Amino acid sequence: MSLNMRSLLVWGMLAGLLGGILAFGFAAAFGEPPVEVAISLEEQAGGHDHAAEEGAAEEEEELVTRGVQRTFGLAVATCAFGTALGGLFALAFAFAYGRIGPLAPRASALVVAGLGFLTVAFVPFLVYPPNPPAVGRPETIGDRTATYFAMVALSIVLAVAAIYAYRALVERIGWLSVVVAGIGYVVAVSVVAMLLPTFSEVPEGFPAQTLWEFRLASLGTQAVLWATIGVAFAVLLERSLHRATNRTMDAGLAAG
Known about the structure:
Elements: H1 5-44, H2 51-63, H3 66-96, H4 105-127, H5 141-173, H6 176-195, H7 208-255
Helix pairs in contact: 1-3, 1-7, 3-4, 4-5, 4-7, 5-6
């Protein structure tokens, strides 16, 4: 049965919106406490050398209070990001469906979600883990952002190449094609990670527990978002296909 691209986009955006809502709840519960600790540490270190950064932060605080940032601002950001990611997920599903093996639409959606989390969130997280406030120099933020997105883009490209390698080998070596493609992706992404610049800017004395909790919460937020998108999209897709099948059967019975 053919899948309508417009419907896929709608389902993807709805799944992304739901994922954004759940990701907001997770981030508010587990991500905001270490952020608050990091901000308090930054405020206590009022004599550090980042005077320009402090001035910019004070100006921003006057425009958007911290209370708004951690509630309404965080909700808008996660929901908007989730909706956009859901639309991109629908496009990725349309591209991958039928190319990752003889899987049903629901199984394909779950596999795409798993691969998406792996390539877009988990692997870049391992190479460039996020940092809370007070960690990182402001003069390097442009370079850090550029290298992070470069890592994401290269990870996606290498994942697509691994899928094509799997398709080329599956008829020759069967299930071993998955192992070969997976190992090839790991090796290639490891080489890329070694070639890209590294940034080690955690200040001496910064609490390791706070840093770990923030990074774990960031990864958990991504996991909640991707899992919700995959499951919700699969459910919406399965229900729509089921309704379409029932309509076709009813039409056939009526014609008969």
